[in-house]
Write a structure and sequence with these properties.
Number of helices of chain A: 14
CATH architecture of the largest domain in chain A: Orthogonal Bundle
Radius of gyration of chain A: 27 Å
Strand content of chain A: under 5%
Number of helices of chain B: 10
Distance between the termini of chain A: 53 Å
Helix content of chain B: 25-40%
CATH superfamily of the largest domain in chain A: MetI-like
Radius of gyration of chain B: 23 Å
Distance between the termini of chain B: 37 Å
CATH architecture of the largest domain in chain B: 3-Layer(aba) Sandwich
Bound molecules: adenosine-5'-triphosphate, magnesium ion
Number of strands of chain A: 2
Strand content of chain B: 25-35%
Shape of chain B: globular
Helix content of chain A: over 70%
CATH class of the largest domain in chain B: Alpha Beta
Number of strands of chain B: 18
CATH superfamily of the largest domain in chain B: P-loop containing nucleotide triphosphate hydrolases
Shape of chain A: globular
Oligomer: heterodimer
Largest sheet of chain B: 6 strands, mixed
Structural class of chain B: alpha+beta
Order of helices and strands of chain A: HHEEHHHHHHHHHHHH
């Protein structure tokens, strides 16, 4: 062993700016955290929260009915307008749709996510991710217009149903009040189907991630203690996967609450919140009412998260 | 009375791995049965076959006289203490222990009372409100034990249930388990790779290697009369003598086992060997001897004079201590 090759117990500094910085960050980890977090926090704080705050303020202004100008005085008049039957209708319709889309997504997503988390290995796992993500890579508008063709009166869906001699099933469904319409592409049912299709990946991925973290031996322990597969599902699997389901539902619920394109292309002429916001800030020029409409999903999501937390949905985290 | 567990030519293969290979096994009702073997020898797989998490590739399994193949785990009145505990992280300790009874529809007050009693049994009274994540490894192991015991199963399967405990608690729990097993009359199938634990606790032991049972018998039989070199070597780390060596020591040309504690070191008589090393074990000192290329281990009781490495010593043994194992293997 030569003296030059044998390192001492303490190695010399690496030298240079990089070396000095590494040492400084190691001695003071908070410094690194500060450097890393400042830019995103500035962005989040000023651009995002700032505009949200500006929005909130706008919603407490009102519009002068004669001049059409915004009156910059604090008032609850705009919120009062929100409670008018026609506007309340929009809110109820949107929230109901968002709720149904979320429930349907969760029900469809769970078995797919379960398969991917528990059984898919290697190539099948890759195929799963590709299958779930692929629709996200193509333009949202393309998919929505594609669905318009699928659901149209002479579309592929009614063609298939006709071939199967099931046309009365579609007609019967379309004849129903509320969910029905002239054809699937101009009915709330169509809107619902497309929403579920478009947002499904946002439910599958977090549920799959949550299920992946449930160790197999917990399911075995449950069976060992006498639980049937159904009991294991409701006492072990579901509680442990719930944070994932909640995360997914936050996506599907808020995305549906805010969307204004799908119901415009596929659905009835009845407005959704997003469409109302679009109309009020654009053509109607009623920024305060548009702002008040925007606050609704924020408040609803807040209440939803609070309820989920109270119900213990995040206990397993 | 039928046997608690019967294996007839049971195999469980994973691809080319023969985790359990044509095993015949009979566990008697009410006995404390230990499965002993090195890591990867198929002990856990055997337990999983009894619990129902694995189905045999071939062969037949009976539990208390009833066919077990094709019966799901939740229909077997058998409970497991898992090697890695498998406590439910979202439930507190009391609810974990009460899980089996909750599933069977026992009322909340009653099952929580039973859970507390079971926790007391494993020396964890008042821990019910904690989450498993807030316990040490040894405490989790004891909760897992309470969770299985509280159901009073027909057969209790324990997969190295004392592995994470310190020596003192381990010895205490060994006593407790043994007492509990006798008091409850439950059949225990206990997996361990600690031969001391198996010898001290079990009524009978099966020694596993490479998915096969090498020998089944009482601790005395396994220790005193090992049938194969593997058993002799694994149980109590015996000196395994080759036929040639046995001959040189004055025996027949057969494989033989000579326990380290049965060898005496003296000034005269016996055979001569050189001391190559010694290590202090607390209650004894282990010497390694070299006799013309053959190695021997000797256990000297505490208090006896320890010869220095390099010294020449003479060693001998009682004729009955040399256990012959035939010419095979
Ligand atoms: N699911 C499985 N897939 C493939 N091989 C497996 C599987 N389970 C066990 N094996 C293999 O079977 C053999 C026996 O495993 P087993 O878990 O029964 O050993 P063990 O005796 O319990 O060991 P340890 O003392 O380390 O717990 C090992 O070689 C293991 O790799
Ligand atoms: Mg094991």
């Amino acid at each position: 062993m030569t003296a030059a090759a044998a390192p001492g117990a303490i190695l010399p500094g690496r030298g240079g700016l990089g070396g000095a910085l590494s040492d400084a960050f190691w001695r003071n980890p908070k410094l690194l955290l500060f450097v890393m977090l400042t830019p995103p926090l500035l962005w989040l704080g000023i651009i995002y929260l700032g505009s949200l705050f500006a929005l909130l303020i706008q919603s407490f202004f009102s519009i002068d009915e004669f001049s059409g100008l915004v009156v910059r005085e604090f008032t609850l008049k705009t919120y009062g307008e929100l409670l008018r039957p026609s506007n309340l209708d929009i809110i109820v319709r949107t929230v109901t749709m968002a709720g149904l889309v979320t429930i349907a997504s969760a029900i469809i997503a769970f078995p797919i996510a379960y398969y991917a988390a528990r059984y898919a290995k290697g190539r099948w796992k890759a195929i799963f991710y590709l299958g779930v993500m692929l629709p996200l890579w193509s333009s949202y508008l393309v998919k929505v217009y594609a669905w318009k063709l699928i659901l149209a009166k002479e579309g592929i869906l009614s063609w298939i149903f006709a071939k199967l001699h099931l046309t009365p099933l579609i007609d019967g469904w379309l004849a129903l009040p509320v969910v029905g319409g002239n054809s699937l592409s101009v009915s709330p049912t169509g809107t619902f189907l497309v929403f579920v299709y478009v947002w499904l990946p946002f439910m599958i991925l977090p549920v799959q991630a949550a299920l992946e973290r449930v160790p197999t031996n917990l399911l075995e322990a449950s069976a060992d203690l006498g639980a049937s597969p159904r009991q294991t599902f409701s006492h072990v699997l579901l509680p442990l996967a719930l944070p994932g389901v909640i995360a997914g539902s936050i996506f599907t619920f808020s995305l549906t609450l805010g969307d204004y394109i799908i119901p415009q292309i596929i659905g009835t002429s009845h407005l959704f919140i997003g469409m109302a916001v679009y109309a009020h800030q654009g053509t109607a020029g009623n920024i305060p009412l548009a702002a008040a409409f925007t606050v609704v999903p924020v408040v609803i999501m807040g209440i939803y998260l609070w309820l989920a937390k109270r119900a213990g949905a995040f206990n397993a985290l | 009375m039928p046997h608690a567990v019967t294996f007839q030519k049971v195999s469980r293969h994973f691809g080319s791995v023969r985790a359990v290979d044509a095993v015949d096994l009979e566990v008697e009702a009410g006995e404390f049965f230990a499965m002993l073997g090195p890591s990867g020898s198929g002990k856990t797989t055997c337990l999983r076959l009894i619990a129902g998490f694995e189905q045999p590739t071939s062969g037949h399994i009976e539990i208390f006289g009833e066919t077990a193949e094709g019966v799901p785990p939740y229909r077997r009145n058998v409970n497991t203490v898992f090697q890695d505990y498998a406590l439910f992280p979202h439930l507190n300790v009391a609810d974990n222990v009460a899980y089996g009874q909750m599933i069977r529809g026992v009322g909340k007050a009653e099952r929580l009372r039973d859970a507390e009693a079971a926790l007391e049994m494993v020396k964890l009274p008042g821990y019910g409100a904690r989450k498993p994540g807030e316990l040490s490894g040894g405490q989790r192991q004891r909760v897992a034990l309470a969770r299985a015991l509280v159901n009073k199963p027909k057969v209790l399967l324990l997969d190295e249930p004392l592995g994470a405990l310190d020596l003192k608690l381990r010895e205490q729990m060994q006593e407790e388990l043994k007492t509990l097993q006798k008091a409850l009359g439950i059949t225990f199938v206990f997996v361990t790779h600690d031969q001391g634990e198996a010898l001290s606790m079990a009524d009978r032991i099966a020694v596993f290697n490479h998915g096969k049972i090498m020998q089944t018998g009482t601790p005395e039989e396994i220790y005193r009369r090992p049938k194969t070199r593997f058993v002799a070597d694994f149980v109590g780390s015996s000196n395994v003598l080759s036929p040639a060596f046995t001959r040189r020591l004055g025996g027949p040309a057969e494989w033989a086992s000579l326990r380290p504690e049965d060898i005496r070191i003296g000034a005269e008589g016996g055979h001569e060997a050189r001391v190559t090393g010694s290590s202090f074990l607390g209650n004894a000192t282990r010497l390694t001897l070299d006799m013309a290329g053959e190695k021997l281990t000797v256990l000297l009781p505490a208090g006896s004079a320890v010869p220095a490495p390099g010294a020449s010593v003479r060693f001998s043994w009682e004729p009955s201590a040399l256990h012959l194992m035939g010419t095979e293997t």
